[in-house]
Each structure stands twice: as C-alpha cells, then as structure tokens.
Write a structure and sequence with these properties.
Elements (H helix, E strand, L loop, with lengths): L2 H11 L20 H6 L16 E12 L3 H12 L4 E4 L12 E2 L4 H5 L7 H11 L6 H24 L3 E4 L17 E5 L10 H14 L3 E3 L2 E8 H4 L3 E8 L4 E12 L8 H7 L15 H8 L12 E4 L15 E3 L13 H8 L8 E5 L2 H4 L15 H13 L12 E5 L2 H8 L3 H17 L20 E5 L3 E5 L10 E3 L5 E7 L19 H20 L3
Parallel strand pairs: 1-2, 1-9, 2-6, 9-17
Antiparallel strand pairs: 3-5, 4-5, 7-8, 8-9, 10-15, 11-12, 12-14, 13-14, 16-17
Amino acid sequence: MNRRDFLKGTLAVGAAGALAGCASNGSTVEALTAETAAELKWAFEIPPDPIPESDITQTIEAEILIIGAGASGLVCANAALENGAAVVLIASSDGPVARGGSNFGINTQAARRAGIPDYDVSTAFKRRMRDNMFRIDQDKWWLFAHRSAEALDWLDAKMTAAGYTTTFEYNYTDPDEGVLDTLPGTLGWVGGDIQGIGMGEPLVVNLLRESAEGAGGQLFFNMKAEQLIREDNNKGRVTAAVARGADGKYVKYIGTKAVVLATGDFTLDKDMLAKYSPWSLEIDNGGVYPGDGHKMGLWVGAAWQKSVPNAPMVISMVGSSPGNGLGFPGLLVNKYAQRYCNEDNLGSFAGIVQARQPELKACAIWDTAYAEKAAPWSPANYGEPDRAPAQVVAGWDAQAAAEPMSVLGSPTMYLYKADTLEELANKLDLPADALLETVARYNGYCRTGVDEEFGKRSARLYSIESGPFYGSTALPWKLITTGGLRTNVKLQVLDTNDEVIPGLYAIGTIAGDMYGSCYDFISPGFNLGANCTTFGYVVGQSIAQGSV
C-alpha cells in the first residue's frame, strides 16, 4: 500500500486501528459523517490504564519538573535555576538533543553589535500575521516580540562567555519586488568541531546541560515519561509524571509548582499526522519525535490547538540558490520534464509546491553561465563578502563528483553534470524529448523577457544554452510538524473550554497555534528563537518567580 492509499484508508475508517468503525458509546458506525466522526477516537487519544503505585520504585520531587532535554527544556531549566527554583529534568534521550542552530530574535543587542539595523516591529509583525493568514495566536507572537531580545541576549552572553563565536545568517532580501524578503536577526554560534552557520545548536544544549547541572539541577536521561498525574480524576492540578528507565523500572517525578512539557514534535506518529496534518503525510521523511508529550497532555484533558491542519516545516532541496532562504530560481520540472510553477520563490514554499507533483519529484536544470547570470551569490554569514561565481561553479563540480548528499536526516540530494541535455535527462531519469522541448520553450521566454506560462519576472529568467549542464533532484524535506497543545500567553496548557489545566505548561515545538498553513522561513529560525528559547526562558523565569 502506498502512502496515498494509506492516508485515504485511515481517514475513511476514522480511527487508527483499534476502534475502527466504533463510536465511543459502543455502537457500530456504518458510514462516516460529521456527526459520527465527532464520536470516533483515534488510538492515540485513548489513555492507557494508570501505572499502579505498587510498580513505582522511587519518587523524586522538585519545584519544577521539565520533560525534554532539547533547547526549550534546557533553556527553561537554566532560567528557573537562576531564579532560585529547584528543578528536575527528565528525557528519553541519552543526552541533550538538538539540530540546526538558527535562532531568530528581534532587535537584539547582539544584532546591533553586528551592524544589523533595528526594524519596525509593528509593521513587520502585521506582515507576518498576513503571511500566516491570521491563523495564529497573536498573544504568543507578541510575547516573543517583547521578550526575544532579552532571552537571546541572555543566551548569547552564555555562549560567548564559553568561547563560542556569534554569527548572523545573511537572510534573503528580494532586490526587485520586495515580496519575498526575510527578516534579519537570525543568530547562532560556531566553535570547536561545528563551524557551519546555522548548525550550532548542539553547542547550545551541551553548554546548557553543564550550566544546569552546575547550578544544582537534577537531570535524568534515558528516562521516558509515560503518563502525567492529574489530581481529582483528571479535573485538578497536574502534579507529576511517571517515567520508565532503561532498566524498565518506574519512577515518579513530582513538580510542586509546575510540570513543563518540552517534548518536541509528533511527526513520527503517522496516525497523529493523518488527523492533524493529513496533507503532509505523503512527505514521508523527517521528524524527530512521535508526540509522546502531546499524547500525555491529551490524556489529562488538554485541547489541541485551534489551527488545524498543523503546519509542517517543509523545504525544497533541489537546485543551487544565490540567496539564503531563496529556492532555486531557474528552471524546475517534474517527472514528465514539464515545468510546473513560477520558480521565483522561497525554499519553504518551493517545497510545498513540489509536494504537489507526481511522486513528489522535482528536478532543477541549469548551465554553467547561471553562476554569472544569477549573481550576486550571498554569503552564509552576515558581514561576509558575496561568493564569487567561480567559487560557486567549483562547488557544483565537487558535489557532482562526490557521493549523493544528505544532511541531518534530509532526503538524499543528487547533483549531476553532463555535456548535453540528453545526457542530463538520462541521469535524472527524465524523458529527453520532453526536457528538450521544455528548455526550448523556457529559453524563448528568457529571450523575450516575458514568461508566458507562470509570469516569472524577467530578472529571474536564466536561459539554459551552453554546457556543461547541471541538474539536481531530491524529495521535499519535512523537518518536523509544528505545534500541538493549546496554550495561553503564559504557556499554560488549556482544555477544550479554554480553561487552564493547573500546573501544566508546554514550550518548544509542542506549543500550538504559532504557524498558519506552513512554516514559511520568512523569519528563519523562528521555532528555535521563539518557541524554544524565548518561551523556555520566560516560562522558567516566571514559574520560579511565582508570577504565573
């Protein structure tokens, strides 16, 4: 069964396996309707039996219990410890976890020192509301706007004191139309073995682990939280979590002030995707976690976020882009060698467009002259010089001669070099005659400066005429699926009546209603900068100070 058939089947049944065709009242459902669908439950929504007290071998208590050792959990732990709270953190991983390293912040002191000018927050954020179709929680967005500089400067001070170098990604500015501008202010750190811009988050979490343990925090790894404990038959306060260690033994962890979920995404659970992000299910790659925190929250009465379907973080991996954040602006074709879009787009939107193509296949086609025509080639880091066209071509040649590339679990990207378009078509498994016809038609638009198919601006019409020729192909990459539990501006988890579930918080990727239809990278690094760093900092600080 292919992914599309699987998706159709799961939606038609209405429940993932165990209760297929059965309503919650035990009656048999013969056909799925709006009414019967409301009564059906997915298997992941059904809470397991409580773990008996007799199976619990140990109880550990602190003021704040944090579940998850990614950036959000470790930021929260450090902020709470610095404000005098006793903290215990548990995680199913064997140590801190992180990938990437792009942290978006607004008008930070670090950015000013780097020469990045401040910008008007109100105008920028109104545009961001528009970009997300206003399907977001504006309260939390404005919490980020007001507190991100404080949070990221706090983190930057820790990182620079430890000897790491602060970097700022060179975000794309649309030189002609201003439609695809990305906001400046995406910072990260490099040092030691990690020198790639936007790759330094492992440095962050490892440092935060050390500082948390040094401040007296108790950190337990290889300890998987399995159930939350909510008093008064799931109507009172969330006070603890029961976790199972690698030895199979259960331990109860109590948070007298709060229990904070910082458990990441839910992309690895296909049933959750089928319910909450069905259109992205076919992009069958990426993701980090199976939504354990989401499920535990649902089992104690948490509501799902209001904006559904949840927004995936998708990006196109094909082609070679002259601007950070920009997708490949040359010629894109599908498996039939047919052009399918206006290629002048951001990489995130380009990935979503690609996901509409047969078998998700896209191929980028260009020639050597593209390096000169598409210049300037922006640097990776703010303040560095543009990349020279000759340097860009050398990179293509090296990649074409090397093994196919995959980064951080991304789909394999194949880049080929050929003397003729026919040879390139063969390497990309494209119909050669169709590719030649498409290239000829596209070159005609390049000569006249008028794209008669998709209206791409003339400045982005790069002809494909003289070899050697290059082509690349890769599936779109779904890094994670964002969001999940409904929260208020204090990051307290809410029930279906929008009432606070006392004692329970959600930060990081699990916090819902932060993105509209997709994660668009117009603010590159927003998830790490907002959901993880800013929200982790604010929640740890506010719980410790008793201000929530």
